[in-house]
Amino acid sequence: xxxxxxxxxxxxxxxxxxxxxxxxxxxxxxxxxxxxxxxxxxxxxxxxxxxxxxxxxxxxxxxxxxxxxxxxxxxxxxxxxxxxxxxxxxxxxxxxxxxxxxxxxxxxxxxxxxxxxxxxxxxxxxxxxxxxxxxxxxxxxxxxxxxxxxxxxxxxxxxxxxxxxxxxxxxxxxxxxxxxxxxxxxxxxxxxxxxxxxx
Length: 199
Fold this sequence. Notes:
Elements: H1 2-29, E1 36-37, E2 42-45, E3 52-56, E4 64-70, E5 74-76, E6 79-82, E7 88-91, E8 97-99, E9 103-105, H2 114-118, H3 126-140, E10 147-148, E11 151-152, E12 157-158, H4 159-162, H5 168-182, H6 186-196
Antiparallel strand pairs: 1-6, 2-5, 2-9, 3-4, 6-7, 7-8, 10-11, 11-12
Helix pairs in contact: 3-6
């Protein structure tokens, strides 16, 4: 009986050590890296027109590389990281990092001709005009030629809404009608955009 107890105790002790060792190995092997594969494939710099954002050599101890990426340009993201302050960074390859807060997801709209950018037939003013301009900037950078799948123009309206007429005057009219019927005002549409990321 003593031999059986002794063997049982030794076996249980061996199993305990094996599980402890396995737990220790698993604890050490758990991923601690903060860099992850990118969930966003392409981003567009969303800063200030005519200016750019700095490119850094690292997200942990960043040093300015001397390069800047212009507002409105699009870049492929290879990895995403979070620094000690909780800020998100994007790796563009070759130790080139940018801060995610200065970007929006997706490609930049195609450049518009000067006549398209300056044309407007909107009838709103004041706070309504400000809210409308804000939405246009968020949706397309104010570009009447912008395209994103089925969404077209300055206000990224569905092609079905525009009915094949993509002229600036028509885009303005359809946008005003759409917002009036759906939200009642551009201010309400902006508030909806702020809470949902679209309008």
